[in-house]
Specification:
Blueprint lengths: L2 H15 L4 H13 L3 H6 L7 H15 L4 H5 L1 E4 L2 E4 L12 H11 L6 E5 L5 H9 L4 E6 L2 H13 L6 E5 L11 E6 L14 H6 L2 H4 L7 H9 L4 E10 L5 H5 L7 E8 L5 E8 L1
Parallel strand pairs: 3-4, 3-6, 4-5, 6-7
Antiparallel strand pairs: 1-2, 7-9, 8-9
Helix pairs in contact: 1-2, 2-4, 6-7
Amino acid sequence: MVISEILKNAAGILQQSGVAEPRRESVLLLAFALQKNKTFLIAHPEYKLSAEEEKRFQEFLQRRANREPFQYITGKQEFYGLDFAVTKDVLIPRSETELIVENAIEILRGKENPTFCEIGIGSGCISVSILHEVKTASAIGLDISENTLEIARENSVTHNVLNRLDLKISDVFEVLKNEKFDLIVSNPPYIASENIETLQVEVRCFEPLTALTDGKDGLSIIKKIINDAPKFLKPHGFLLIEIGFNQADKVKSFFSSNVWQKIEILPDLQGIPRIVKAKIR
């Protein structure tokens, strides 16, 4: 089959499967299968796929028709201007999470040899992006999954920051002892278990459940981080946590005014309360 035919057929299959932008995704999948750019596909509609190319594309198409996220098929996702390897062991990086990176850079820049800790490092997109921008910073990245840490390690090698990132298996802060940081960051599992079924098929069926929900109301890990963070922050250190829709008021109530001196709720580009920024006394 030639490119024009295969794209028409593929778009129809993806549309029937409920994929939101079937034509666009067909083009991206075919470009990935052929290892060509979109311009090539547009300029060569008459290009005939080899048997091997068509087989590879049909495999990718079937996976996407089953609603597997495009990023898991290609194995990568762009975040804060960098490409990150992703597998089913980690959440797919999302643009709203870049707000943590932006604020972290603002907090750490200008400090002498700043340090920070990430709880639930996942793909490493947050820590690696911060380290990539703040060349004097160093970090500890914690996660409960060894497979997840391997992806974070791969991404830190790709972007030349592994020498400043110490990766450790840990349930929240459990492996830490006397470390003190200028900043603690986290994008924790904050979706209430009762809301998992309302998520897109791509999310609820393919992304790691333990990175999406605490199995409860979505607030237990957030609360634990807020309660334990003061032990590991330097005076006037900061905490940045991503939160879910409609959680802002509840999360603010977890902060003791005796311990914390400033709590801000930062909105994402859609105006949704997305990040809690708090400063310790």
